[in-house]
């Protein structure tokens, strides 16, 4: 019931499609570097935690990438996982043709640019590819049909903005702001509650779809407990976008009412929050929870043009939904200029992500 209810309210926030200069495909190098930085950890996790005995006999091994976007990052992640799984099978003394065939399910919201995704599939891939549209906050697959789930830089996106932050009659109304990072305690609590609700729905759905002994490998942006959120790159990024929108309200380009009703549906978790929701769900054990090294190099941060393009690839879809496509060029041009003015503030900021490996408990 929980997964059915959340599917009704889940909204889609696709990354910018196509392969143009502002597309997500051309502006997701930070995510790619983070995924490459955990390759050894993922291989180790699969080698030590994946129960081959529980998965056999089977003539196929099913992997699902949740929030795949348009590539090429998803293909690199899948290749790394396939290599690790093959090594696991070989370590058990199995060789071709004893090793099962691989089938990979690429999942994202229905507005995702699946056309580009499948046009970009590696020609020499060693797996069968399937597209699965829909929100990962609900059921996507038959019961006990997936052996390994993967998701990178997707679980920070909430299914929806907490309703109370858009209610003028509620103490949590987030007037004049577009996120919770610099807002009131009421707004922060609303976002925390939405995150907990979403993660419970996510885990509830995956618990039904994952075979016993199967794994989930997740890369989730967040922050270490006790670290002020104002020290993060995400904080400054959203602050600058908010400042640009306020400037455009002052110019009369967009209305104050439109701004007051706009909030970014993103949440940065800390490990303790994730541990709490996993424990409450009860279907998974946490096998790995590690802080990833900072991969956003200083020269990348200090390249305003590149950083602005990354922001546009991530947020343009949301901006269009709320304000219309007519303002996007002006907004992101202004955003780029503000970035150039504030570059020195980005250098000491932290970009923190976590590698999480969850294992489906046996009956």
Structure commentary:
- The chain is an alpha/beta fold and 363 residues long.
- It has a single domain (2-360), classed as 3-Layer(aba) Sandwich (Rossmann fold), CATH 3.40.50.150.
- Helix content is 44%, strand content 16%.
- It contains 13 helices and seven strands.
- The chain has helices at residues 2-9, 29-37, 39-49, 52-55, 73-91, 114-119, 185-209, 233-250, 256-260, 271-281, 298-301, 304-323, 328-346; strands at 60-66, 101-108, 128-133, 146-152, 210-222, 284-291, 352-360.
- A seven-stranded mixed β-sheet has the order 3-2-1-4-5-7-6, with helices on both faces.
- Helix 3 runs parallel beside helix 5, helix 7 packs across helix 10 (271-281) and helix 12 crosses helix 13.
- It starts with a helix and ends with a strand.
């Amino acid at each position: 019931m929980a997964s059915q209810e959340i599917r009704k309210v889940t909204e889609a926030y696709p990354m910018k499609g196509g392969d143009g200069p502002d597309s997500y495909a051309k502006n997701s190098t930070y995510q790619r570097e983070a995924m490459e930085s955990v390759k050894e950890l993922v291989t180790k996790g699969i080698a030590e935690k994946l129960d081959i005995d529980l998965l056999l006999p089977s003539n196929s091994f099913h992997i699902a990438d949740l929030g795949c976007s348009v590539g090429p990052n998803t293909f690199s992640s899948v290749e790394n996982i396939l290599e690790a799984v093959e090594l696991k099978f070989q370590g058990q003394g199995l060789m071709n043709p004893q090793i099962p065939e691989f089938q990979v399910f690429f999942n994202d919201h229905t507005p995702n640019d699946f056309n580009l995704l499948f046009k970009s599939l590696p020609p020499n891939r060693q797996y069968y590819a399937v597209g699965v549209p829909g929100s990962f906050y609900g059921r996507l697959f038959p019961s006990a049909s997936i052996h390994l789930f993967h998701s990178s830089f997707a679980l920070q996106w909430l299914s929806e903005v907490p309703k109370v932050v858009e209610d003028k009659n509620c103490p949590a109304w987030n007037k004049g702001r577009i996120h919770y990072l610099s807002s009131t305690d009421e707004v922060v609590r609303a976002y925390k509650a939405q995150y907990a609700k979403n993660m419970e729905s996510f885990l509830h759905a995956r618990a039904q779809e994952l075979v016993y002994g199967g794994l989930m490998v997740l890369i989730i942006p967040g922050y270490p407990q006790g670290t002020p959120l104002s020290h993060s790159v995400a904080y400054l990024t959203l602050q600058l976008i908010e400042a640009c929108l306020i400037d455009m309200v002052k110019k009369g380009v967009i209305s104050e009412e439109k701004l007051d009703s706009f909030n970014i549906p993103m949440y940065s978790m800390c490990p303790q929050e994730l541990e709490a929701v996993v424990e409450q769900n009860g279907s998974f054990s946490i096998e790995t929870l590690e802080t990833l090294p900072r991969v956003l190099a200083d020269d990348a941060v200090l390249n305003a043009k590149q950083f602005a393009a990354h922001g546009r690839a991530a947020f343009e879809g949301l901006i269009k939904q709320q304000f219309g496509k007519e303002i996007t060029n002006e907004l992101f041009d202004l955003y780029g200029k503000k970035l150039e003015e504030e570059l020195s503030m980005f250098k000491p900021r932290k970009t923190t992500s976590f590698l999480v490996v969850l294992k489906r408990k046996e009956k």
